[in-house]
Recover the amino acids of this structure.
């Protein structure tokens, strides 16, 4: 019988086919391959929904497609490609394919209608990007995940640098590639460490590395090589190594510097990077191997602390930015900080919930920004906008829905997910002081987020128009408004999938669908459930406000109040006819924020400090490695130069040579053959 | 019956005359003729041994070689014409421009 799971490879292959088609045939196709991309991603979306329904009806799936190396190493292990379909990956497949489809449709308006050149290359890049991310999502082992993780990085490089004829994009692409590569270096070492320790990198099953690690912590270290460390210490080291890749990809401090520069890419690509593909990959990876991370409290504490710090740190930088997409870039870093905080504080479901809602509202905000950019003839400076509210109502209302979600205003999607993250951090903070620091920073970031979000909304859409273009913006078509409307609705209502506070306060059982979903209530794989993670996790719950209900209510009230404070402040300062730059009053602090805390300068400074090492490496490379290669080739070159001189081109010489050689041959035969 | 040694002497004499021509002459036409002499030295051998063993295969082979030689001359004359057009001369030692 044919089941949805037989079509799992097709989900990945369809966008890949669209990549190949767009690359080789794109220039002959109408719309340069856009329709192929839309058809492929929409097909993947339908298949993903089918897979989701199959998981909903109580099954899960794990299959190995191809074993490409067997019995490698002293401790023989196999390297495979396979698919792991459980509630988490099924949900992620739907998110990624949905966003990718909408981004493809939006690109019709943003790229085709704007008369961009090289469109086949663009659509090929989008197709490969989507395919790589989908391959990463279904990966059933860490090595396969790593490979697709790298492909995702490569595609982001290609797409960020799409406008390679200008000066900024190639440099931004290079930066994104190098910074994430720095993180991935640790990830690669981590993958090798996982293989060396467990002899397997599978995510699920009794022989998977999280399961083996769990039994090792419980005392049975058979078949596991921890290189002389205590299991907990060693697993902390391995977990932190893999976390390096996560920090690079999900743009966490201190490897967040690539993301704001990545705004040089086309806006639909930014939407894809921020909502569904590149940046989401890091958080998804931690969620995927969460059974491994929850075993080591130190790693969890570090994840929570990094996440909380990044959430606050990035939010403060968003306050002073002048360009629409820059504000959104810092909000992405900040929101992924929240997800890391959730993961680090044991809120597995909260993190996945925020990943979902963020995917919708951030894709919405970027596409909305794209719509504004079309209208503004590619001027992104918010100080040149203003008053767009009445001229582009669809964009305004959807953008507003996305902003309310981002700011965490009740009842939009972001409120529910952000509130749950803070709640998880709060109730677990009793057993781990690091979590409390994370919680405090996460809470502080709430009003800052609301403030910069609504500063952006008011500057862009409210007040009087501050430039000629803003008075007569270019209209946008259905292919821009359509995706915006879909995402606008989703950003407003996605919260209903997981209304935990409502359930707890009103005592309604069973409306926390996402909790039940990720708890394998309908179907799933043994050992990959939120229930299991909570059992083996290091945290216990304490309720600082007395009962559970009181804590839920107090937590939600505090975060909502703080968000409203930020929103109110933005309203007061910027919702006026002629807003002025209030941030100038911050003085030196504004300079500090505007220059991103001089993080870029700091990294350049660090790079200069290590110039000696890289210089030596370069000398070694040029002298020894290249020297050997050049030496070999110069031997051939010189001898060839000498030997070619026997070719004189004079027929007589050849004839003479032939005759003499024949004679010599005859004489040799005569002597050796004994004729004399 | 003439013993085969005589035929062999004749053919090797003919071959040496041809070889001498190739090694000493610069004119392409002499060159071509010398090549023909060497070819015919080989034909004489074929016919001689065919006669000696009473087997016609060698003679058939010689007929083919003669036909091939005719074709070869046609090609050779063509090359000589091209040589004359390009260099204004039929001196084979001058046409040395196609080396490295």
């Amino acid at each position: 019988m044919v089941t949805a799971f037989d079509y799992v490879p097709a989900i990945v292959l369809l966008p890949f086919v669209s990549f190949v088609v767009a690359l080789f045939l794109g220039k002959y196709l109408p719309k340069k391959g856009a329709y192929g991309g839309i058809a492929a991603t929409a097909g993947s979306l339908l298949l993903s929904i089918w897979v989701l329904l199959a998981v909903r009806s109580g099954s899960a799936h794990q299959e190995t497609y191809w074993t490409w190396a067997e019995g490698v190493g002293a401790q023989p292990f196999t390297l495979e490609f396979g698919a792991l379909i459980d509630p988490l990956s099924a949900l992620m497949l739907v998110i990624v394919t949905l966003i990718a489809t909408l981004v493809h449709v939006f690109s019709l308006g943003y790229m085709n209608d704007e008369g961009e050149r090289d469109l086949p290359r663009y659509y090929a890049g989008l197709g490969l990007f989507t395919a790589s991310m989908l391959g990463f999502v279904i990966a059933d082992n860490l090595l396969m995940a790593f490979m697709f993780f790298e492909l995702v990085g490569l595609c982001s490089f290609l797409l960020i640098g799409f406008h390679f004829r200008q000066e900024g994009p190639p440099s931004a692409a290079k930066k994104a590639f190098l910074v994430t590569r720095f993180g991935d270096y640790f990830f690669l070492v981590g993958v090798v460490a996982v293989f060396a320790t467990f002899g397997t990198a599978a995510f699920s099953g009794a022989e998977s590395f999280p399961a083996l690690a769990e039994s090792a912590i419980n005392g049975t270290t058979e078949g596991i090589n921890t290189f002389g460390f205590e299991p907990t210490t060693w697993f902390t080291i391995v977990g932190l190594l893999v976390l390096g890749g996560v920090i690079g990809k999900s743009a966490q401090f201190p490897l967040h510097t690539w993301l704001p520069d990545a705004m040089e890419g086309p806006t639909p690509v930014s939407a894809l990077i921020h909502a569904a593909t590149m940046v989401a990959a890091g958080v998804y990876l931690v969620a995927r191997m969460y059974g491994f991370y929850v075993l080591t409290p130190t790693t969890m504490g570090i994840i929570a602390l990094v996440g909380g710090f990044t959430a606050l740190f990035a939010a403060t930088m968003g306050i002073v930015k002048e360009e629409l997409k820059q504000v959104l870039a810092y909000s992405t870093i900040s929101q992924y900080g929240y997800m890391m905080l959730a993961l680090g504080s044991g809120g597995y479901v909260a993190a996945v919930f925020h990943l979902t809602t963020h995917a919708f509202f951030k894709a919405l905000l970027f596409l909305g920004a794209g719509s504004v950019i079309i209208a503004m003839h590619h001027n992104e400076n918010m100080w040149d906008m203003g008053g767009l509210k009445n001229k582009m109502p669809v964009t305004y209302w959807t953008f507003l829905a996305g902003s309310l979600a981002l700011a965490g205003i009740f009842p939009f999607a972001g409120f529910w997910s952000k509130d749950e993250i803070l709640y998880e951090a709060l109730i677990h903070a009793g057993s781990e002081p690091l979590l409390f620091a994370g919680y405090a920073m996460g809470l502080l970031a709430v009003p800052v987020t609301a403030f910069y979000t609504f500063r952006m909304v008011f500057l862009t859409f409210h007040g009087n128009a501050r430039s000629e273009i803003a008075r007569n913006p270019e209209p946008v078509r259905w292919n821009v408004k359509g995706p915006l409307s879909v995402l606008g609705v989703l950003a407003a209502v996605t919260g209903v999938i997981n209304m935990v506070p409502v359930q707890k306060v009103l005592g309604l059982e069973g409306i926390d669908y996402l909790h039940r979903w990720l708890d394998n209530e309908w179907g799933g794989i043994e050992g990959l459930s939120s229930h299991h993670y909570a059992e083996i996790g290091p945290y216990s719950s304490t309720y600082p406000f007395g009962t559970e209900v009181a804590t839920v209510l107090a937590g939600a009230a505090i975060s909502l109040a703080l968000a409203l404070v930020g929103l109110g402040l933005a309203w007061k300062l910027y919702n006026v006819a002629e807003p002025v730059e209030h941030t100038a009053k911050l003085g030196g602090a504004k300079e500090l924020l505007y220059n991103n805390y001089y993080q870029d300068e700091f990294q350049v400074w660090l790079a200069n400090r290590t110039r000696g090492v890289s210089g030596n490496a370069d000398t070694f490379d040029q002298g020894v490695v290249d020297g050997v290669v050049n030496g070999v080739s110069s031997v051939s070159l010189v001898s060839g130069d000498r030997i070619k001189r026997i070719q004189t081109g004079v027929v007589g010489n050849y004839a003479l040579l032939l005759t003499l050689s024949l004679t010599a041959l005859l004489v040799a035969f005569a002597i050796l053959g004994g004729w004399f | 019956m003439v013993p085969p040694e005589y035929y062999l002497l004749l053919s090797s004499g003919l071959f040496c005359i041809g070889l001498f021509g190739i090694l000493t002459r610069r004119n392409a036409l002499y060159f071509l003729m010398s090549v023909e002499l060497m070819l015919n030295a080989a034909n004489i051998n074929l016919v001689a041994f065919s006669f000696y063993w009473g087997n016609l295969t060698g003679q058939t082979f010689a007929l083919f070689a003669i036909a091939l030689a005719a074709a070869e001359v046609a090609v050779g004359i063509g090359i000589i014409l091209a040589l004359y057009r390009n260099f204004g001369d039929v001196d084979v030692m001058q046409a040395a421009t196609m080396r490295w």
